[in-house]
Structure formats: C-alpha cells, structure tokens
Write a structure and sequence with these properties.
Layout (H helix, E strand, L loop, with lengths): L1 E2 L2 H6 L7 E5 L5 H16 L4 E4 L18 E2 L10 E5 L19 E6 L10 E4 L6 H12 L5 H14 L10 H12 L4 H9 L4 H13 L1 E3 L4 E6 L1 H7 L9 H6 L6 E6 L9 E7 L6 H6 L4 E2 L3 E6 L3 H11 L2
Parallel strand pairs: 1-7, 2-3, 2-5, 3-4, 5-6, 6-7, 9-10
Antiparallel strand pairs: 8-9, 10-11, 11-13, 12-13
The protein binds manganese (II) ion.
Manganese (II) ion binds next to loops.
Length: 323
C-alpha cells in the first residue's frame, strides 16, 4: 500500500504485461470515460488491454455513442498474468461485490480522485485535486508521451464534463478548463457530447424523475430533501436501473436544501436492499462523512452507500445526520 507519484505511474505505461482495466459498478460518465479513454490510449501505445466492468446492470444508454461495446462483463481467463488497474473507485468494494478478484492479478494499481480513497492497490495514485479521474489519466498520458487520438479525447472529455456538472461545480478549476481545451484540440466535440448525453433522454427516464419528484419530501427544517424509488416505480415508468442517475441532482436544486438524497431499490433482489445517493450543496456538509456512517463513501459533495435497512430506518438515519 504505497502512494505513488504521477511520474512513477506514467513510467509503467509504455511497456509491460497485459492489462485488465476496470471501473466502478453503476458507472457514471467519469467511470466510463476514464475506462475507455485509458483503454484506447494504452492499446494505441501497444499494450494488450482487457476492459472489465463487474455486474450485469446495463450501461447507461446516454454513453452509447462511446465505444462501450469494448467493455467486457466477464474477467479475462488469464487475469493472473495481467496487471489490474482500477479507475475512479474509492474502495475495493466499488469494483464489485467480490473483492477477492484483487488477489488474482499480478498487481493492482488504483487511480482515483476520491479524497477518502482506501488505497486498496499495491500502487495508489490518488489526486483529490483532480476534477475527475479522466484528468489524472490525461496527465499520465502526457507524462508518458502517449499521444491522445480523437476517440481517447472524447472519452476523457465525457469524464470531465459530467464530473464537473458541465463546468458548474466547485471542482471546475482553471486546470479543468485547460484540460477541456486540450481535449477539444485533440478532437473531442463538445456539441456532439452534449447532444448525445443530455438530449437523448428516454421518455421513461423523465417519467421516473416525475415519480421521484412526486415522492420527494422536505426534512430537517427544509435542509434535507429526500425521495425514493421502488422496483414498482421503475416498472410503472418502464425504466431501467440506470435511469435514476441524475434524479438526486434535480433535488439538490431546490431552494434552501443543503443535502439531497435518493433511496432506491436495486434491480437485483439478491443484493443489498437499498442504494442511497447523497448530494450536498453547501460547503458546511460533507456527505461522504454521512455515507461512511453506513459503510459507503465518496466526495464531499457527492457520495453514496448501500443498506439492508428499511426506507424508514434510512430516513431516520439521514434526519439524525442532519442534526
Ligand atoms: Mn469521478
């Protein structure tokens, strides 16, 4: 368990053993963009690359314009001969339910920007100042002298534009804008990315949002806005599991709210009973701390946890966390 520098990790890139790259379950734009951006760049540099995502949850359809068909849902049969790189995973649990996977590869390299990263790799490059994991990857590629093609640039741009809330969140630093400029120079198309991600919303996803807004209620004197989605809600909206991504951001926009929470039933009946997403708006509340109180984690402003508690028990916990 060592903290590595950019230079040390960049040195591993030009040549080495076959790789298995992965990211977290229920992947967001930074997860998918980082996995594909790194995968395509490493491959173009001559590396043997297997891209892996645990679980069977369908990929969010808004990222379908990226080459997501490159991502395998099974581990490679020769995992023992591969180096395993995890992107955007704050802990080993984020990779998937079976943490013993990490015992099989040659070694594990953990590349992430979550401030509460557990350093589960043999080498850990954790940069909480990076707006997104894609930013860390772009810097690694530059330091390794690996050129960024337009496919890589567009995947990394997706990580940047989604994790910064389209350049609106507090992590939108001058470096985030400089990175955007470099990626657009390298061939990323912001208008195409915007249209693909934000103007292709399935009607069922808007219906699910409608149900979530209808359930929403203010707690803790209006500082907490919480809602929930059951499996029946997904069914009645005709929605797939990833369709709830973004719901919690709509809640956060409500006047006076400092924490927004979505409690939802996952599709798999054999897993945890609930998944909880948290967003904070004011700097005074660290939602990753609330999430850690139930074994989860994340960023100060965006975090989550899974729970076997009932909805009522989770609501009571969240209310108490706001006290
Ligand atoms: Mn991220």
């Amino acid at each position: 368990m060592t903290d590595a520098s950019y230079e040390e990790i960049a040195r591993l890139l030009p040549a080495g053993p076959p790789l298995c790259l992965t990211t977290h379950e229920s992947p967001d734009g930074d997860a998918i963009g980082s996995l594909l951006g790194a995968g395509l760049a490493f491959e173009a540099a001559g590396r043997d690359v297997w891209l892996y995502l645990a679980g069977t949850t369908p990929m969010p359809n808004e990222y379908g314009f990226l080459p997501v068909d490159r991502i395998q849902r099974e581990l490679p049969s020769d995992l023992e001969q591969r180096e395993f790189w995890a992107f955007d995973c704050g802990s080993a649990r984020r990779i998937g339910p079976d943490e013993s996977v990490l015992e099989r590869p040659l070694r594990v390299i953990n590349v992430d920007h979550h401030h509460d990263n557990t350093r589960f790799g043999e080498l850990n490059l954790v940069d909480p100042d990076a707006a997104c994991t894609a930013q860390i990857i772009e810097r690694l590629l530059r330091e390794a002298g690996i050129a960024i093609g337009s496919d890589v640039a567009e995947a990394l741009y997706v990580g940047l534009v989604t994790d910064t809330g389209r350049f609106q969140y507090a992590n939108t630093t001058p470096e985030a804008f400089r990175l955007a400029a470099r990626l657009v120079d390298a061939g990323a198309d912001p208008a195409r990315v915007f249209a693909a991600i934000w103007e292709t919303v399935p009607f069922a996803k808007q219906r699910l949002l409608g149900i979530a807004l209808e359930h929403a209620r203010l707690e803790a004197s209006g500082r907490l806005l919480v809602t929930w989605l059951t499996r029946d809600d997904y069914r009645s909206a005709g929605a797939d599991e990833p369709f709830s991504e973004g719901v919690v951001d709509h809640l956060r926009a409500v006047e006076g709210v400092s924490v927004a929470a979505l409690v939802r039933e996952p599709r798999e009946v054999d897993g945890p009973r609930h998944k909880v997403s948290l967003r904070a708006r004011d700097a005074g509340v660290d939602v990753s701390k609330i999430a850690r109180g139930r074994g989860g984690g994340g960023h100060v402003g965006a975090a989550g946890f899974t729970s076997n508690e009932t909805l009522q028990e989770i609501l009571a916990f969240l209310r108490a966390s706001m006290a």
